[in-house]
Amino acid sequence: MSIVATSPPSQDDIKRIVPWILYVIFFSVLNEMVFNIATPSISKQFLLQPSEVSWFTTIFILFFGIGSIMFGKLSDLFSLKHLMVIGIIVYVSSSVLGFFFRDHYVTIILFRAIQGLGASAIPAINNTIITRYVTIAGR
C-alpha cells in the first residue's frame, strides 16, 4: 500500500469540484428515490411478503454502512479522486447489471448490496474533501 501525498487544491480547484459533488449527490439521491417508488411494483412482480420486500432497503443500507467505513479508511491511503471514480463505477455498473438481471429476486438483492458499497463512496469522499480542503469560513 502506498500513502498518497499531494498538495492541497487551490480555491479555484475547490470551486470547480463543488458542482461535480452536487451533481453526483443529486443523481445518487434520485436513483434511490426512483428505486423506492418502484418497490411496490417489484413486490407484485415477485409476489413478495413485506419482510422480503424490506430486504431491498435493508441490504442497501447495511452495505452502505460497511462501505462508508471502508471508504473513510481508504481515503487516508489513496487518492480521493480515484476512490470517488471507483465508487461511482461500482454504483453505476451494479445498477445497470441489476437492471439486466432483474428477473430474479436474489440477483436484485445481490446487486443492491453492491450498489450500496459503491454509493457509500459518495458521502464518505465528499465529507473528506470538505473537511480537508474547504476552510471553515468557506463552509
From TrEMBL:
Chief location: membrane
InterPro entries found in the cross-reference section: MFS, MFS_dom, MFS_trans_sf
A GO molecular-function annotation: transmembrane transporter activity
Membrane topology recorded in Swiss-Prot or TrEMBL: Multi-pass membrane protein
Domain of life from the UniProt record: Bacteria
Compartments (UniProt record): Cell membrane
Key words, A-Z: Membrane, Transmembrane, Transmembrane helix, Transport
Transmembrane segments: 20-41, 53-71, 83-101
GO cellular component: plasma membrane
Major facilitator superfamily (MFS) profile domain location: 17-139
SUPFAM superfamilies: MFS general substrate transporter
PANTHER family referenced in this protein's UniProt entry, alphabetically: MAJOR FACILITATOR SUPERFAMILY MULTIDRUG TRANSPORTER MFSC
The protein, known as: Major Facilitator Superfamily protein
Organism: Seinonella peptonophila
